[in-house]
């Protein structure tokens, strides 16, 4: 009796300690989640804080007098004249008119407020509308990057050192008059890369990513699923298939740069395919995502209950009919999820593309599988390495676009799984 | 059924991607090479692309050595047409080119790149040798009592090294290791002041480089990020601080900054262009002549690069920071672009 009492006493005494332990254990878990979440919040806050201004552009709305004499141009349809004409002067004159305090001797300082590529915009506009010559037009041009940075970060000294005191005063005046304006940066989504941050865009990288991903999906999904079906349903269990299985698992853990080296050696050096093209990028990323797809597809096939196979075989279905009519449709949600996650991984990959030349300065937007292209993460990498202040916000903005794509793909995976999943 | 359609469409897309005629013929110029030349070449490429009907050349920043390797791999559209370099082609690279059939190459020396040690005009200017610079910034330096032994850098003030130098703490702000400027600074300035010291004389080349290119990490060298403007701003605010950056930033701020004299040479455009200033190097690009006429626009790109609009006194490359060659050299470049003379091995020796 006394023994039992003391036993109960002991339990009661230790109870408090056990509760405390339990609470502490839970607190550790919550702390772990809090650390992970706060890291994520800091990351997102940093990216959004830096990149939000990347979605804005600064323009100059000017009344441009397209005086043929001033531009050395009397026929805007003549290619040769267009080549030699001066498209900068009308812009400088238009801007000088808006800044009353600036004299002719300030023209260089005034010209520095206009984007170096604004004259190309004017040239292209005249080329398209030759009748505009000798008229006055109200047009909108990109401001110089230094002006862009200054206007977006008004009051922050670190961002204004590129402009002189006088230029800063002029810009302030122009902002007041409504000539310098910030608006949504559609240029960012319409252009390829550029060395001028104001003109740089991600359309080239988005199309490049899209083309690369099409090649990757079109090759890795059918091959991966076929390999998984054979290994799960048809292959005999022996040393050889064990060996293959071990190697597929090993392949999934190989660092991605190795696939880049392989792509360089095989596709470019051996097969003589061109550098920097989405086809080669897609092939390399296919090799990288294949193991992921095979492994997840096999897991999906394994999770189909044997009773379904047996029932199908019981009513006389052939092995192929069992696989195509019953196993594959039931395993499809798992396979699709695995593939999409593999694709999302491939979308964020830069290392293997470095070696096959897709880390490059490419201005023209690619139009086909054999055009030079870069991809989104590469564009982020290139911009983040550029010294110009304005590229920092462009890089962060590109990261946001990339994240939007990744979130979209993961959402698609969840939606497909929900839609196709069958429970039993 | 939906599934089947989905599967067929994916398979179909795969076949289309696989069979679509591989347009191996390239109509875009492909350029590889030095990351130092990259910012200049990209600007030229973009201007060339907007000015002419040709598509904009594609540029890869592979480093000078990597670029040479790709360039010398052979003739054919899968190989690059032009390679940029921040040093001259080595004879071994020339031999590799010859071996692979890349026999006709034209060399263009496009200008220079100098690195300065600057301070505010109110500060005491430095007039030092590269050796003094290494003693001030190296991680391990020779023991003052035993020149054969290397010790952790003991110098705290410039005057500790040489009593004629300013009596202020050694604080130098410079670019981070990821920057090309830092690479050349380590290579040309620090190693230049270190490789002749007795302490490293017996070392293998790799060990010597490891010692000579290590910068002290006790706070005397401050890494400032890739923004050279920030360094300029800090120098103006602080008289005892020195900064390392490209010559172009000194020139832009010449009313507020002054540059240290290294090995007795003041960094000027002339001294850098003539290779007299010790922390300067020439920049080059090499053209594969066999590709002219095969890939459209190569000649046009070269002409754009050596045009006065780009490399002249007020050219746009100057505003990106290139130290443009003097006028006669530019005229020579124009002649070269017109005649495209072959590079001879004897020139590289």
UniProtKB/TrEMBL annotation, chain A:
Keywords: Cell membrane, Membrane, Transmembrane, Transmembrane helix, Transport. It comes from the Bacteria. The chain crosses the membrane at residues 25-45, 202-231, 251-273, 279-301, 322-344, 395-416. GO terms for molecular function: phosphate transmembrane transporter activity. GO terms for biological process: phosphate ion transmembrane transport. GO terms for cellular component: plasma membrane. The keyword Transmembrane helix applies. InterPro entries: DUF3333, MetI-like, MetI-like_sf, Phosphate_PstA. The keyword Endoplasmic reticulum does not apply. Its main location: membrane. PROSITE patterns: ABC_TM1. It is found in: Cell inner membrane; Cell membrane. Residues 206-413 form the ABC transmembrane type-1 domain. It is a multi-pass membrane protein. Belongs to the binding-protein-dependent transport system permease family. CysTW subfamily. This is Phosphate transport system permease protein PstA.
Automatic annotation (TrEMBL), chain B:
This is Phosphate ABC transporter substrate-binding protein (PhoT family). InterPro entries: PBP_domain, Phosphate_ABC_transporter. Residues 19-308 form the PBP domain. It comes from Marinobacter persicus. Keywords: Signal. PANTHER family: PERIPLASMIC PHOSPHATE BINDING COMPONENT OF PHOSPHATE ABC TRANSPORTER, PHOSPHATE-BINDING PROTEIN PSTS. Residues 1-25 form the signal peptide.
């Amino acid at each position: 009796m006394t023994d039992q009492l003391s036993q109960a006493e002991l339990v009661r005494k230790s109870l408090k300690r056990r509760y405390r332990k339990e609470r502490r254990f839970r607190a550790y878990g919550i702390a772990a989640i809090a650390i992970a979440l706060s890291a994520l919040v800091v990351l997102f806050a940093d990216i959004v804080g830096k990149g939000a201004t990347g979605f804005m552009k600064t323009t100059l709305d000017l009344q441009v007098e397209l005086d043929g004499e001033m531009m050395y141009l009397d026929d805007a349809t003549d290619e040769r004249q267009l080549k030699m004409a001066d498209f900068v002067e009308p812009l400088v004159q238009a801007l000088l008119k808006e800044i009353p305090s600036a004299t002719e001797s300030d023209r260089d300082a005034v010209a520095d407020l206009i984007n170096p590529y604004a004259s190309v915009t004017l040239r292209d506009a005249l080329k398209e509308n030759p009748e505009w010559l000798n008229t006055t037009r109200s047009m909108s041009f990109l401001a110089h990057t230094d002006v862009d940075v200054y206007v977006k970060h008004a009051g922050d000294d670190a961002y204004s050192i590129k402009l002189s005191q006088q230029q800063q005063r002029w810009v302030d005046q122009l902002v007041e008059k409504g000539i310098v304006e910030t608006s949504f940066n559609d240029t960012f989504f319409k252009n390829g890369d550029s060395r001028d941050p104001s003109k740089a865009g991600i359309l080239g990288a988005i199309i490049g990513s899209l083309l690369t991903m099409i090649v990757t999906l079109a090759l890795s999904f059918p091959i991966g699923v076929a390999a998984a079906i054979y290994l799960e349903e048809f292959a005999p269990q022996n040393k050889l298939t064990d060996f293959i299985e071990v190697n597929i698992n090993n392949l999934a853990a190989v660092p991605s740069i190795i696939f880049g080296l392989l792509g360089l050696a095989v596709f470019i050096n051996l097969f003589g395919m061109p550098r920097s093209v989405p086809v080669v990028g897609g092939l390399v990323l296919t090799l990288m995502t294949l193991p992921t797809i095979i492994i997840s597809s096999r897991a999906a096939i394994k999770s189909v209950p044997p009773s379904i196979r047996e029932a199908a075989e019981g009513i006389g279905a052939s092995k192929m009919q069992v696989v195509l009519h019953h196993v594959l449709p039931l395993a499809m949600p798992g396979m699709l999820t695995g593939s999409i996650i593999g694709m999302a991984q491939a979308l964020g990959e830069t290392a293997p593309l470095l070696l096959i030349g897709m880390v490059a300065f490419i201005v023209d937007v690619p139009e086909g599988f054999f055009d030079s292209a870069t991809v989104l993460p590469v564009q982020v990498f290139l911009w983040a390495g550029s010294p110009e202040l304005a590229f920092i916000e462009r890089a962060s903005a590109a990261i946001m676009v990339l994240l939007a794509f990744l979130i979209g793909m993961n959402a698609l995976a969840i939606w497909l799984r929900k839609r196709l999943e069958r429970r039993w | 059924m939906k599934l089947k359609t989905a599967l067929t469409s994916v398979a179909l897309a795969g076949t289309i991607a696989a069979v679509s005629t591989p347009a191996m013929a390239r109509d875009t110029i492909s350029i590889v090479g030095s990351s130092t030349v990259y910012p200049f070449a990209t600007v030229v490429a973009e201007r060339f692309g907007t000015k002419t009907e040709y598509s904009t050349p594609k540029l890869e920043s592979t480093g000078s050595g990597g670029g040479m390797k790709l360039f010398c791999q052979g003739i054919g559209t899968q190989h690059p047409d032009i390679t940029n370099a921040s040093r001259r082609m080595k004879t071994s690279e020339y031999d590799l080119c010859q071996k692979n059939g890349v026999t006709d190459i034209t060399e263009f020396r496009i200008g220079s790149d100098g690195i300065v040690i600057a301070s505010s005009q109110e500060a005491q200017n430095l007039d030092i040798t590269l050796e003094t610079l290494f003693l001030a910034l190296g991680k391990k330096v020779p023991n003052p009592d035993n020149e054969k032994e290397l010790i952790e850098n003991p110098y705290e003030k410039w005057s500790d090294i040489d009593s004629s130098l300013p009596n202020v703490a050694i604080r130098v702000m410079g670019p981070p290791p990821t920057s090309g400027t830092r690479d050349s600074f380590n290579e040309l300035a620090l190693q230049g002041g270190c490789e002749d010291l007795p302490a490293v004389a017996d070392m293998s080349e790799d060990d010597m480089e490891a010692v000579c290119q290590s910068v002290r990490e006790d706070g005397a060298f401050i890494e400032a990020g890739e923004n050279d403007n920030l360094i300029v701003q800090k120098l103006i605010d602080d008289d005892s601080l020195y900064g390392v950056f490209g010559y172009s930033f000194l020139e832009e701020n010449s009313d507020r900054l002054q540059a240290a004299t290294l090995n007795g040479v003041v960094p000027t455009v002339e001294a850098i262009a003539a290779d007299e200033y010790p922390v300067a190097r020439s920049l080059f690009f090499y053209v594969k002549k066999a590709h002219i006429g095969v890939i459209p626009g190569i000649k046009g790109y070269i002409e754009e690069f050596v045009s006065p609009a780009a490399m002249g006194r007020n050219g746009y490359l100057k505003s990106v920071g290139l130290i443009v060659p003097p006028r006669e050299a530019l005229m020579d470049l124009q002649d070269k672009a017109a005649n495209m003379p072959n590079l001879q091995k004897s020139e590289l020796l």
